[in-house]
Each structure stands twice: as structure tokens, then as C-alpha cells.
Specification:
Strand content: 25-35%
Shape: rod-shaped
Structural class: alpha/beta
Radius of gyration: 33 Å
Helix content: 40-55%
Largest sheet: 4 strands, mixed
Length: about 240
């Protein structure tokens, strides 16, 4: 509507200045519409560059997420650009679990990603998005032709994942997978694992010589899980320190 008003004010200013025979009245009306033309033009420019008639509106929505790689609790960070300063996070939701490609956060300099690891029951992503919106219907009617309603301002993505999740870059994840699949690493882990479990069982039986077969199996199982956790944590730390 504001563009139409500008054209009308310009047309009327020209008409009254040129075609009205009473020049005194004509010029007075012409100057009035010139002033209205300038006011409307300033309003249009203010809306375009300073968001006149608009306000920042923030919305928040939380999604349950899953790992991008099935069978793991893994949140992947993908570095973008040659300097790696921008990044996106790769994940899935229950609705997109079977999709060919996983989802990613928006690649934008005005998007901030935050990852929190703790004792969370479910892994979630909370998107807090801020946009410019018109204050009311009047401003929307006036400047709607500019097509700038709901213009993106910024977004904060907060991931909350459990302590059993890994947060790695895509490069680190590839290095981890390559290392764990190597024959030499598997042989090393088997040898070290057997020695660790044997030492733990021996220690437990020393403390409790009357330990039953079932109790020994339980200690063995716990020792295997502890070794796997320690070995994985050590390997991940080595990869992250590279």
C-alpha cells in the first residue's frame, strides 16, 4: 500500500502544480502532496533498513533427536569453509529416522549451536528462533508488499544429550571408525582386554575366595564393560588431541 500511496502523492503533486488554474491553490496542494510523498518515502526506507513498524518475535520449539548413525549415540559436528569457523550439527529425529539423509542445523553466521552433555533422559534439540514481524495488521497492510514479514534474525540451537553420547566432528568419527576396524587395534584390544578382565577377576576372588561361578561371571561381565568404556574414552581423547 505504501508504494501505491507514493505514486498517488507524486501524481497529485504534479497534477495540482501543472493543471490547476489557480496557481496559489495549486502550489499549496502540490507542496502538501510533496510533503506526504516524502513522508511515505521515508517510512518505506525506514521499514526496509530499520524495520519500522516491526518487532522482534522469538519462538521456541523442542525436538527429540536420534543419532545420525544407527546403533550409536553420536552427535556429529561438520566444519564448514576453509577456516572451519562455521559449523553444522548432523542428527535425526524419530520422524526422519529412515530418511536417506540426516538433518543438519542451518548453515548461517547468525545461527549459534550449543551442546550440553549431562544426565538427560532423552536427547533433545531446542530451536530458539528470532524473526522480524509486523506489530499489527495496519503495518502489515502498509508495508506487506515489501515481503519482509517473518524475516530471519538469529537462531540458537541447544542440544542436550546424555553422558553416554559422543560429540565428534565428522573427521574424528571417520578416524575413530577406521581405527576401531583395523586388525591391529582389534588384536591389541583383545590382548589388553583379556589381561584387564583376568586381573579384575583375580582381585575380586582374592577379596572373596568363596565367590560362586555366577558371581565370577558377573565380575567378568562388569570388567569387560569397564575395559571397553576406558579403551573407547582413551581412543577418543587421542583422536581429539590430534
Amino acid at each position: 500500500m505504501i508504494l501505491i500511496s507514493i505514486l498517488i502523492f507524486a501524481g497529485l503533486a504534479y497534477f495540482f502544480a501543472v493543471f490547476l488554474q489557480n496557481k496559489k491553490v495549486g502550489y499549496s496542494l502540490s507542496f502538501t502532496f510533496i510533503a506526504l510523498f516524502l513522508i511515505a518515502l521515508v517510512m518505506l526506507i525506514s521499514n526496509e533498513y530499520s524495520h519500522f513498524g516491526m518487532e522482534k518475535v522469538t519462538s521456541e520449539k523442542t525436538y527429540q533427536i536420534q543419532s545420525a548413525q544407527k546403533g550409536t549415540n553420536l552427535l556429529l559436528e561438520k566444519k564448514l569453509g576453509s577456516n572451519g569457523k562455521e559449523n553444522v550439527y548432523v542428527y535425526r529425529t524419530p520422524e526422519t529416522a529412515k530418511a536417506k539423509k540426516p538433518q543438519t542445523t542451518k548453515a548461517d553466521s547468525h545461527v549459534k549451536n550449543v551442546v550440553k552433555t549431562g544426565n538427560y533422559k532423552n536427547a533433545t534439540l531446542t530451536k530458539k528462533t528470532t524473526r522480524w514481524e509486523y506489530k499489527n495488521g495496519f503495518y502489515s497492510f502498509l508495508f506487506g508488499i515489501s515481503d519482509n514479514n517473518k524475516e530471519f534474525v538469529k537462531q540458537i540451537n541447544t542440544f542436550k544429550v546424555g553422558n553416554d553420547w559422543l560429540v565428534l566432528t565428522t573427521t574424528q568419527a571417520k578416524q575413530l571408525q577406521k581405527k576401531m576396524n583395523s586388525k591391529s587395534f582389534k588384536a591389541q584390544m583383545k590382548q589388553e582386554g583379556e589381561a584387564f578382565v583376568k586381573a579384575e577377576v583375580t582381585k575380586a576372588m582374592t577379596q572373596n575366595p568363596a565367590m560362586t561361578t555366577a558371581q565370577q561371571k558377573q565380575v567378568t561381565k562388569q570388567a569387560q564393560q569397564a575395559f571397553q568404556a576406558q579403551a573407547q574414552a582413551k581412543l577418543i581423547q587421542e583422536i581429539k588431541n590430534k
